[in-house]
Amino acid sequence: MRSHDETMMLQTPFHSRVAKACELNQWDEWKGYTTPAAYTEVEQEYFAVRNSTGVFDLSPMTKYRITGADAELYLNKVMTRDVRKINPDRVGYTIWCNDAGQVMDDGTLFNFGENNYRLCSYTRVMDWLQWSAMGFDVEIIDETADFGALAVQGPTSCAVLKAMGFKGIEKLKPFGMSHFPFEDAEVMISRTGFTGDLGYELWVEPPKAITLWDRLFDAGSNLGIRAIGGNALEMVRIEAGFLQAGVDFVPAEETVRVGRSRSPFELGLGWLVDFDKGVFNGRQALLKEKREGSRYAFVFLDVEGNKPAEHSFILKGNKEIGTVTSAAWCPTAKSNIAFAQIESKYANSGENLTAEIYYQTELKWTRLLAKCRVIDSPVFSSPKRRQTPAPDF
Questions:
Q1: Most buried residue, 117, 288, 382, 388, by CB count within 10 Å?
Q2: Which residues 6+ apart lie within 8 Å of 127 measured at CB?
Q3: How far apart are alpha carbons 374 and 359 in whole angstroms?
Q4: What would the pLDDT profile of 85-124 be if each residue is shown by its tens digit?
Q5: Peptide bond between residue 383 and the one before it cis (omega within 30 degrees of 0)
Q6: Is 201 annotated as a binding residue?
Q7: 208 and 257 share a domain?
Q8: 37 with 178, same domain?
Q9: Beta strands of the chain (E only): which ranges?
Q10: Domain total for the chain?
């Protein structure tokens, strides 16, 4: 018989504190790591992000350090956006495609200086990154386990970090990053997040992780700080309009059936495709699609009623034209929101559609046809997200 230790999932550097705080004992799996679905009450965790500060352990996020004389040249070849425009000490949201112009994943690219980058993503793509690096003078290292990371998000997040002694943190601009002394080491802080609100991500080496957690929660004890799990994060990211790989699209390298992957244009990410920069993966396929048009479109839907349209079919009249990928009742926006992939000719703003929703109560399934309407943009975006200096809320 194998011991418990031999069958245990991976644990993040914050696990001892995370496990102690997880009163509900509800856990998910994230790329081999154990991670909380919820700590106490999902609603309380959600409102911590919207009204004070929520802390999410994002250590399992895949992290690749990419260095070498050709690092910038290489990344500009595999990414659809112009990497040269991401300045040092800045972070850029980016996507990368296969040769057919289908999205493999999205993520954030950190520029630490000349030819020194970190790529953070949902998928693990080391093999593909290395194959794509043939002919380039680059080194790619998987440093996922080398850093713990916490997302510190919400209106009081800057005040909490100031209380920790991170002098000048309020001056950090959105998508900026800076290093601060911490104990006898340092912590890197980026003004990034997945919530649509003021927020930061803290990056630290594992030996300092527990100290960082303790200091963070001590500093935020009078500012409404609370640990949040994956369920609350799911609510806030839907409200803010952020896509999730494996949920809103299938990474191209993971598809089994033809036609299940999507292009940047079909995901509403065409703004991340820069045809002026020269050759990059999928360029020819994407140029053709731009000329001829896309079959599918990604849309935000305002759904009638309060039943989330999870996994629903989207209809135009009696015709099925697409499916819902994410859905939630959003408390702050007081809206029933869905993300959907639909046939592009029905994606115009204001288009009236129908969501075919199925839900279960006491073992009985109910079919509901709810009216829905295509809307232009996400339903939540806090002005504090971009305000610099960041406010004390």
A1: 117
A2: none
A3: 22
A4: 999 999 999 999 999 999 999 999 999 999 999 999 988 9
A5: no
A6: yes
A7: no
A8: yes
A9: 26-30, 33-38, 53-57, 62-67, 90-97, 103-113, 116-121, 139-142, 148-153, 177-182, 185-190, 199-204, 225-227, 296-303, 313-316, 319-330, 335-343, 352-361, 364-375
A10: 2
Cβ atoms of residues 236 and 50 within 8 Å: yes
Question: Are 184 and 256 contained in the same domain?
Answer: no
Contact status, residue 106 vs residue 262, Cβ threshold 8 Å: no
Mean pLDDT across the stretch 254-267? 94
Instruction: Quote the domain boundaries for residue 349.
Output: 252-262+295-375
Give the residue from 264, 167, 272, 150 showing the smallest Cα distance to 214.
150
User: Which CATH number covers residue 152?
Assistant: 3.30.1360.120
With beta carbons less than 8 A apart as the criterion, state whether 75 and 161 touch. no
The pLDDT-based confidence of 1 (bands split at 50, 70, 90) is very low
Q: What's the burial of 240, exposed, middle or buried (CB within 10 Å: 0-12/13-18/19+)?
A: buried
pTM: 0.94
Instruction: Tell me which H or E stretch contains 43.
Output: helix 42-51
Structure tokens at 310: 């999870």
* Burial category of 85 from C-beta neighbours within 10 Å (exposed 0-12, middle 13-18, buried 19 and up): exposed
CATH number of the domain enclosing 365: 2.40.30.110
Judged by DSSP in three states, 273 sits in coil
Strand partners, 179: 188
Give the per-residue pLDDT at 32.
Answer: 93
How many C-beta atoms surround the C-beta of residue 187 within 10 A?
A: 25
* Separation CA 38–CA 53 (nearest Å): 16
Q: Which residue has the higher pLDDT, 235 or 1?
A: 235
Helix%, strand%, coil% for the chain, nearest 5:
25, 35, 40
